[in-house]
Structures are given as structure tokens and as C-alpha cells.
Amino acid sequence: MTSRAALTHPVDGRFGAFGGQYVPETLMSALRELEDMWHEAKADPQFQLELAGHRRAFIGRPTPLYAATRLSEHFGGTHIHFKREDLCHTGAHKLNNAVGQALLALRMGKKRVIAETGAGQHGVATATVCARFGLDCTVYMGTEDMHRQSMNVRRMKLLGAEVVEVTSGTKTLKDATTEAIRDWVTNVRTTHYIIGSVVGPHPYPEMVRDLQRVIGDEAREQYLSLDGKLPDVVVACVGGGSNAIGIFTAFLDDHDVTLVGVEAAGKGIRTGEHAASLVAGRPGVLHGTYSYLLQDGDGQILTTHSISAGLDYPGVGPEHAFLRDIERVEYVAVADKDALAAFRLCTRLEGIMPALEPSHAIHQAGLIARDLGPGGRILVCLSGRGDKDMDSVDAG
Amino acid sequence: MLADTTSRLETALKAKGDLKLVAYIMAGHPSKKRSIEVGKRLAGSGIAALEIGIPHSDPLADGPVIQHAGQVALQHGMTVEGALEVAQQVAVEGVPVVLMTYINPVLAYDPRKFAAEAAQAGVAGVIVPDLPIEEAEPVAAWLRAASLDTVFMVAPTTPPDRIGDICSHSSGFIYCVTVTGITGARKELPEGIVELLAEVKKQTTLPVAAGFGISRQDHLKALRGKLDAAVVGSAIVDEINRAGDGTALVRELLKACR
Ligand SMILES: Cc1ncc(COP(=O)(O)O)c(C=O)c1O
Q1: Would you name the residues of A annotated as active-site residues?
Q2: Cα A130 from chain centroid (whole Å)
Q3: Among A289, A358, A288, A286, residue whose Cα is nearest residue A322
Q4: What ipTM was predicted for this assembly?
Q5: Model's pTM, two decimal places?
Q6: Domain locations in chain B as residue ranges
Q7: Which residues contact B145 (CB under 8 A, 6 or more apart)?
Q8: A183: Cβ–Cβ under 8 A, 6 or more apart, which residues?
């Protein structure tokens, strides 16, 4: 093994070799505080009670499990179910995380919140909780994403957030995240950074997973209550990986359940214009964590492409890197055009307009359905709704 | 090699009445040739050491000036290998050279190879701002094995009980980040910096250097006697942006160091 293969010394917050805290010293004490606070809050029944209340009345949980019967029929008779995260308030699973972290910010006495956003769903979720809890909110967003997700920019502004346009680098989620971290380095004493996925330095990947695992905890129970059996396959799209970890976690010990994560193949893996870090990347450090990345031979981060802003990110959460290497989860990539076709199909057959991100998962579910045949059982995480993507779909 | 002898950086940066100055340039900014030229001129301008940045696409700890310099360098094809050549050509002037880069380029290059080639190039030490002490191994071990100093940073947010740990991991000198924030020239030094420096001095016998935001004579006057060296980065890079070589600024600043 070459020395670049792994940084394997055992510390908290690593999933096997992956994870860690590769951040400027300035942030180390804030990360320590956050870790302590999170573990304390997680064990505090009062906090859990409060969180449960907001999940019920503000987010709208539990979200339904939905039998996509016409899509099932279209794909040859395998039973396909959706976990309806698109029915969360604000339209995506992102609010599960934002609500929990806002409560934590209040607990830490931090009055200012920052966030990065790609699709704008995490930005909207963060702006929403800041309005709800009376926190100052600044959201970093790349110029390109501000164009393709302009409705979400307007929503954030109406909710009272300041949206800072990021013009550096690729002008998408990666650069918005870099800019948010710079802000945090500067304002760490007063500011809590709500990262939008299971990425970033420890404890974020663990904390965001803990807040998103409600998706799978609910879905597993709902699924079992159908006929006492589990699905054969659970499918979710993977950008940073939060909805996927959210639904997978409950099934990790169910060894008969195949877990499939779907990355963005963009214009095709071979074109180089994609965002499939687990499928086509190598391990390295981005945004404070050691995980799979799209990088050149010199460790410079590559420009990514996906029609879906939420998947357009060159890194991925470290727990996914671990689950890939131990082969518990299978990762594949789906191209722009296939995601678009799945978007249209689902809209027409089910009357549900999915976001372009989970449209990647729906396409993959179709492929798996053909393999499984009639009687197969697939659960798809429908991570968000597609209103935000109207412009991209019209242009696609 | 230099095993067991006092490090070159330690010797060069220890203040003896005066305050030492450390300059920063980015390898490949605005071009490879020019950065070598500028580095050589700075080497003879009275500075005690030169930091040479290896550009990274996502420099978390840097402000707009150094970030931009890095982007220019990358656009012009600067690589880790190219930066090691820049370092080598500047180091022959005799000034101790410290490489400053992020962890991912080092990992991608292979830390063992990076350490060996940096030592070969005559580099004295390495600073990796996104490598806190908890994550230092095994990279630091390779640097040590190549007799390179590994400089760790103390920040204004570092709790006192952690300062000692950082000092014991460091060699060459201790880099004290003056601001809670990223690189970039500031008008005034933040409050509390003198106390932080005093705390660090108490916990180490290594030279202590302050950096981030330092750009003016009055900053240096305020720091003189309280630490060993000051690092000037963005202000020099800014001069290089405006076709200068930074030596005029260095001469100006050196007046405030004595
Ligand atoms: C609806 C939806 N799904 C998925 C994602 C991708 O993020 P993650 O992989 O963290 O779930 C996003 C991100 O913006 C999103 O808006």
C-alpha cells in the first residue's frame, strides 16, 4: 500500500480510513464544541422531545410511504415504493437536518447561521429555520446555481436570508462550500455553520446522518407494516449523500437488503463531465474530510457537471466512502438524459414531479426492476420535489 | 543531513533584538519564471525566510489575494513538481525556504515522495494550514524523516491547554495566526494578539512568528519585542500583482523591525 492510500490512524469521527478534521486550526475548538454539544443534545430527552415536535408540526413527519403502482407496472411488475421526502415542508429532506442544527445553534447561543447551497433546497431549508427560530441567515451560492435555481433564490430572500453570490472557481456547490467555510473561519465565535449534507469535518458527517436517519427509520417501519417483509433493494441519489445515508442507515444490518447509491454521470463518465466521485474518483481531502473525490493527479479539485445542481459536487460523505470500500453499498452513476427521462415518466405516470436529484434514483430503480422482475421489491428515496427544476427540464 | 543540529529555520528566525521578517510568494504567480525571479530578489532583500505557496484549487485558509494568485498559477500550469523547482531555484540563494500548501496536493503527490523531493530541493520546512496536529501523522513522519521542519499553527481560538500540544508537535518555529479568519492584509491587528503571543512564548523555546493580516510598519512596531518574526503575505502578493517584486515593501517594513 502506498502512503497516499490511507491516513489510517484511529481517531473519533472516522469511518474506517475516511473522515477526519482537515481544517485550519482556527476551527478546531469550534468543532470540538460542536461535537460535545451534539452528543449532549442527542442524549437529552428534552432536546429529542423538542425535535420530535418540530418534525411533526413543522416538517410534516412522518412522510408517507407511497406505492408507485403505474411506474411499477411500466417497469415490468416489480413493486416500487417511494419514501415521500418531497412532502417535507419546503420540498426536500434537507429540512430534517436544518431543523436539528438550528436547535443546536440556539443551544450553543449562536445567533448567526451560515450555509452553502447548490440546488437551493438546503439554502431554503436553512433560511426557513432561521425565520422560524429568529436567527440571522447568510447563504452562499454559486452564480451558476443562482441562475438554474432562481426560484429558490427568491424564496431564500423572502425568508429573510442574505444570499451571497459566489463567483470563484466553478461557481457551483463546491465553491459555495469553500466560501462558507471561509466565513466560518472568520466568524466562528458568533456563527454556526449548517452544512447541508453528510460532508465536511467531523462531527458533521455523523451529526447530519443522525438527523437524517429518521427517513430510513420511518420507511423501514412503514415498509414492514405492509406485509411484514423488507424491500429487496433500497435506492437513493448521492450528492453529498445525506438523503442516501438517511434512508440506508436503518437497513445497514439487514444483510438481505441491497443498497444502491446513485451518483450523477452527467454527460457520461467517459466525457469527464460528471459528478460521480465514488464511481470515478480517488480518495483525498476536500472541505475538511478524507473521502472519494474528483481530482487531478496533483490533487486539484476537478470541475464537475450534472444537470442537477444538488448532485453537482466533486466530493462525497466519508461514510459513503467507507460503505463503498466494505462493499455494503453499491454505487452507480446515471446520466443527465436518463434522469430527465425518469423525471418525465414519473410526472406522467404518478402525478408526482420529482426533483432532478432523485430522478437519477428513479431511473436506476427502473433498471433494477427489469432485473428483479414481477414480485421484486424496491424502495426509492424520493428526496425532493421538482418545481425548482422547471427551467432545467424545459432546457434539457 | 541536518539531523540533530538546530534547524536552519530556528536559527534564522530567532529574534536578536530586532524582529525578523518572513515574506510569502505563490509559486507560478504570475508565471513560473517571474516567481523564481521575485523569489531570488526577495531572498537578498533582508528577509529571514521565504514562504513559497504551492497553489491549490480550494484554499480554505486564504483570502481573495492569495486565492487569486493561486488560480493564476494553476491557469498557467503550475504543479507540485513545478513548485518544487521554484523552491529549489530560490533556495540556492541561501534563504531558508518554507513550503506552504494544503494537504490534498501533498497526499496526491505522495507525502513520502513530496518530503524527499522537498528536502532534495533544499527546502527547510513545510506548513500545511489544513493539517491540525490530530491529523498530522503519517505526513509529519515523512517530513521528519526527510529532516524537514513541520510548522503547526496556533490561532486566536486555540485554547491555552492546546497551545502546548501544538508547540510540542512543531519544529522550526511556531506560526501564530493573528486573526480569527483567513489571509489578507488588514488595517489593524486584532485585540488580544499580544496576549496570545505571550502565551505561546511561555510554552515554547522555538521562535514564534505571527502571520495573517500583517502589512504595515505600525503592525511591526506593535509586535516588536513580543515575538521573533512576522510573516507578510497578501501585501507582497499584491505588489507582485502590480508588477512589483515586493522588495520595496520589505525594505520599508524592515525599518520598523529594528
Ligand atoms: C432533492 C434533493 N435530493 C438530493 C440532494 C443531494 O444531496 P444529498 O446527497 O446530501 O442528499 C439535494 C441537494 O440539494 C436535493 O435538493
Answers
A1: 94, 116, 383
A2: 20
A3: A289
A4: 0.95
A5: 0.95
A6: 18-255
A7: B115
A8: A114, A138, A140, A191, A193
d(CA A117, CA A104): 20
Residues near ligand 1 with C-beta < 6 Å? A 92, 94, 118-119, 121-122, 197, 237-244, 310-311, 355, 357-358, 383-384
Q: Which long-range contacts (CB under 8 A, 24 or more apart) does A44-51 make?
A: A47/A103, A47/A107, A50/A103, A51/A99, A51/A100, A51/A103
Closest alpha carbon to B143 in B135, B151, B132: B151
Q: Which of B37, B75, B74 is nearest to B54 (CA)?
A: B74
Q: Which of A25, A292, A294, A296 to probe by mutation at the B interface, max B CB count within 10 Å?
A: A25
Establish if B74 touches chain A: CB-CB under 8 angstroms: yes
CA B158 centroid distance within chain? 19
Return the H-helix or E-strand segment holding B222: helix B217-223
Grid cell 429555520 is found at: A129
Residues of A in contact with B111 (CB under 8 A): 3-4
- Tens digit of pLDDT for each residue in B206-243? 999 999 989 899 999 999 999 999 999 999 999 999 99
**Tens digit of pLDDT for each residue in B116-136?**
999 999 999 999 999 999 999
Please state, in angstroms and rounded to a whole number, the distance separating the CA atoms of residues A222 and B108.
45
Question: Is residue B69 helix, strand or coil?
Answer: helix
Domain B18-255 belongs to what topology? TIM Barrel (3.20.20)
